[in-house]
Amino acid sequence: MSDIAPHGLHHVTAIASDPQRNVDFYTEVLGLRLVKQTVNFDAPDTYHLYYGDAEGRPSTLLTFFPWRGVPAGRPGPGTVTATAFSVPPDSLGWWQRRLAEMGVPTGRPVDRSDEEVLALRDPDGLLIELVASPGDTRSGWDGAAHVPAEHAVRGLHAVTIAADDLEPTQRMLAELLNMRVDAEEDGRTRFVMGGGEGAAVDVAATNGRPGLVAGGTVHHVALRAPDGETQMRWRRQLVEAGVHVTEVLDRKYFTSIYFREPGGALLEIATDRPGFTVDEPLLELGRSLKLPPWLEPDREQIAASLPPLRVPEVVEEAAGRGG
Ligand code: ZN
């Protein structure tokens, strides 16, 4: 087996109901940049919306399938129950006040395994955590209205996988994905990949009914492969270990393979390249509907099946700042 771990979290994909409400929350409240408006390649009559930093770099991305009328899901074993973002160490108080002013309830920040965590829910009930993270050098997106650059969300920090039987899930992360245990406390084990930011997976002991993936829950978590060659190597290793893995799929902005961890949560390994500027310039990211070449012939029909979206105005200067 290769002893290289994925380079960190690439993106988290979750399920929402109303796309406009989703855009408004993640751009105007959390201050992320809408970096791509496209469709679910496997169900092109629904949007796939990507949010991230200025350029939509891997490790900063949260994406959504908005399915209008989708029933609410249920967190529980076999699902990803929390998505944590990193914010600067002194920013939690600012975020708590801002969220309260915007009518988003939060508790107080709580201490958990040496970290300070502010929990909130998005309009569909998805659990988001803001974690005070000293030393995160990522810049986040500084073009959002009303979010000063010094408080901007920096990118993904960690995800939590709930499991009723910890051992098989932990074994896959450690032995097949080469993650290492960083901390263990109160039924929660933190695995880390590489040495970078946005590279933690927590496995939390959870009893009760299995989770249900639907509205307001995470659909899957993607891990970073530096290139297609490494992705193929990991694919071979997973297959040899008896894991059912998809073929490599062309997602336009990266290529992907998918498989499930033993508890049932869906994982993906996605490449860092080519990224979101492959089909529109940095200044224009997210402003109009982009389709992969194989769906382009059906653009008229696809566009007609999607509700119109009002996307936020961004400051030109910030929109062009990807470095
Ligand atoms: Zn994905």
Account of the 3D structure:
The protein is of the alpha+beta class and 323 residues long. It has one domain: 2,3-Dihydroxybiphenyl 1,2-Dioxygenase, domain 1 (Roll). It is built from six helices and 16 strands. An eight-stranded mixed sheet has the order 2-3-4-1-13-16-15-14. An eight-stranded mixed sheet has the order 6-7-8-5-9-12-11-10, covered by helices on one side. A hairpin with a 2-residue loop joins strand 6 and strand 7. The model has no long low-confidence stretch (mean pLDDT 95). The structure holds zinc ion. The site of zinc ion (ZN) has 5 residues, from strand 1 and strand 13.
The CATH topology assignment is 2,3-Dihydroxybiphenyl 1,2-Dioxygenase, domain 1
Share of residues in helices:
10-25%
**CATH class categorisation:** Alpha Beta
CATH homology group: 2,3-Dihydroxybiphenyl 1,2-Dioxygenase, domain 1
Structural class: alpha+beta
The number of helical segments is 6
Question: Topology of this protein?
Answer:
Elements: E1 9-16, H1 19-29, E2 33-40, E3 43-52, E4 61-66, E5 80-87, H2 92-101, E6 110-112, E7 115-121, E8 127-132, E9 155-163, H3 166-176, E10 180-185, E11 188-192, E12 200-205, E13 218-225, H4 228-240, E14 249-250, E15 255-260, E16 266-271, H5 299-305, H6 316-319
Parallel strand pairs: 1-4, 5-8, 9-12, 13-16
Antiparallel strand pairs: 1-13, 2-3, 3-4, 5-9, 6-7, 7-8, 10-11, 11-12, 14-15, 15-16
The protein binds zinc ion (ZN).
